[in-house]
Amino acid sequence: MLKPNLNYGNLKDSYLFYNISQKIAAYLKEHPGKKLYRLGIGDVSLPLCDEVIKALHGAVDDQSKKDTFHGYMPEPGAPFLRETIANHYARRGVTLDTDEVFVSSGASDELGDILDLFDMDSSALVMEPAYPAYVDANIIAGHKIVHLPAGKENGFVPLPDDNYVADIIYICSPSNPTGAVFDKNTLKLWVDFANKNGSVILFDAAYEAFIESPGIPHSIFEIDGARTCAIEICSLSKTAGFTGTRLGYTVIPKDLVRSGMSFNSMWVRNRTTKTNGVSYIIQKGGAAVFTDKGQEQIMVNIRKYKENANAIMAALDSLGIWYCGGKNAPYVWMQCPKGMDSWTFFDYLLNEIQVIGTPGAGFGACGEGYFRLSSFGSLEDTKEAARRLVELLK
Prior knowledge:
By secondary structure, this protein is α/β, with parallel strands linked by helices. The protein has two domains: 9-48 and 294-393, Aspartate Aminotransferase, domain 1 (Alpha-Beta Complex); 50-291, Type I PLP-dependent aspartate aminotransferase-like (Major domain) (Aspartate Aminotransferase, domain 2). Helices cover 38% and strands 15% of the residues. The protein is built from twelve helices and 15 strands. The chain has helices spanning 16-30, 50-62, 79-90, 107-113, 132-140, 184-197, 237-240, 263-274, 280-289, 292-319, 342-353, 379-393; strands at residues 37-38, 101-104, 123-128, 144-149, 168-172, 200-204, 230-235, 248-251, 257-258, 261-262, 323-325, 331-335, 355-356, 358-359, 370-374. A seven-stranded mixed β-sheet has the order 2-8-7-6-5-3-4, with helices on both faces. Strands 11-12-15-14 form a four-stranded antiparallel β-sheet. The chain is globular.
């Protein structure tokens, strides 16, 4: 008799975004036409830059001619894009072989698929509050979850602890949801910890383009020793507005070996078995991101999002409310005022000033009492939301 993957029965229902949508729908039903200020959005709102659009159009034209038509692409990625990404790392002082870079359809897909490389009996350390998919993907894979709590006392950047050891270690820097970043010294501690215990770090670098402070690594491979213990997963979604276009990349060093097996070789085998690669058109658009002009143009958009974050931070500073994130990330993680829990604060903002954020409780138990505000909306709406926040809480 067929036996399904019973691990799906161990998943908890996720009510976070469902509850948010239901509360918003109920509010709008009672207040039709009322304008809402959406600072809970995790999606970008600015369009693809001109260089990317030009490359996409050129690639479409290529597909219309016999001489330049492309069918199936190499499963690990087109050589032109893998080389372009490796050169991008080289400009930051990180040396990669081209075949250590794998092109993907986005970080979210890759974060789930990459678990194929680990035995079913593996354990995964998740620093909470965390992106919920880290936990859910490992539950589906049958892995044991080790929850490492983080909080205001450590700025939501926990240090290694011998009481919390696991085969897989998730690090997201800058973090979703907290916006906290790991400096070089802290990352070095985690790299040494992973190498000592034979663990593998899954480094989620989806928001690295928002880092502006010196001394904050954009890549874990800026840290000595990372090549023997880390896999890096990155995305062009927030970097270049590819949320609807879908493109990312994963770096797996050839030095990463466990039980005599190369993770790089295993991933080549996995991709050539389970995918037919990313389309030529999308990869040409992605390559344009890494040109000098492309980098210049995407930073214009990122600066606009950071201007939104600055408006949010200025409001919280004026109110004396504790927060982290914002400076090096598109998210601001604030402490709920007056001892409110995160859902009570959500209701309070929605009903009193029509501002929408994301309750911290949705990111794990350590998120209770905190609230995530996003900088991905329009500057006009963000400034108005910040003004209303100050007026309400002053």
